[in-house]
Amino acid sequence: MVGNETVQRSGLPPWAKKALWSVGALLALVVAYFVLAAFVPRWWAQRIAGLADAGFARGIAWGLLFGLVCTFVPLALFAAAWRIRTWRRHRVLQVVFAAAAVVVAIPNLMTLSIVLGNGNAAHAGERILDVDAPGFRGATLVGAVVGVIVFLVFAALSYTYRKRGRDLERERDERGRQEPELRSDRPGKVAGAPE
Q1: Residue 68 contacts residue 150 (beta carbons within 8 Å)
Q2: CA-CA-CA-CA torsion for 143, 149, 155, 158, nearest 10 degrees?
Q3: What is the pLDDT of residues 118-128, one digit of tens each?
Q4: 131-166, pLDDT tens digit by residue?
Q5: Which residues does the annotated region (Disordered) include (predicted)?
Q6: 37 neighbors 119 (Cβ within 8 angstroms)
Q7: Does 186 have pLDDT greater than 70?
């Protein structure tokens, strides 16, 4: 029937559909976690071993690079996503920046899965890194700490610069309001006389 009457749909109520979708998504995440936990640490360790080529200096250099870049850039992207909340159409940009931050952080997260993991793949990844990429894990930690420090310094300088700009603008506004008052208070000025 067409009109004000609603046509009743057959099937599950909306809350049941949402519950089923939520359970399905949760199960998919659990399966993905176990599949990735069995695959990612070993695979990532082999990629790093290929880059370091069993060289101590190369292992340290790659660790510092990944640690620094894959910590600083995600923090900067998350900060940018936080700062653009006042822009128009900010939701899309916030999601894009947050997604980009997570993507850039993936190498550090994969290294963390080797360091903190307790499965067979994590232990295999540790052995691969110990032999074929010595120094990588420790250098990644140092690079991550340096990345956090660089981000904090950058954030502090940026905040100071913005605050200084706001203070200067406020001072200009106050000076602009005081100038007409000063002109009208000049001694010897006759009302209505040309300046």
Answers
A1: yes
A2: -100
A3: 889 999 999 99
A4: 999 999 999 999 999 999 999 999 999 889 888 888
A5: 168-195
A6: yes
A7: no
Handedness of CA 23, 103, 85, 93 (dihedral sign): negative
Burial class (CB in 10 A: 0-12, 13-18, 19+), 37: middle
What's the token pair of residue 5? 């009457």
Distance CA 151, CA 157 (A): 10
Asked whether the whole model's pTM tops 0.85, one would answer: no
Token pair listed for 52: 């370091």
Per-residue pLDDT at 7 exceeds 50: no
Burial class (CB in 10 A: 0-12, 13-18, 19+), 68: buried
How many CB atoms are closer than 10 A to CB 103? 13
CA distance 91 to 77: 14
Distance of CA 58 to the CA centre of its chain: 27
Amino acid at 1: M
Residue carrying structure tokens 């208070």 = 185
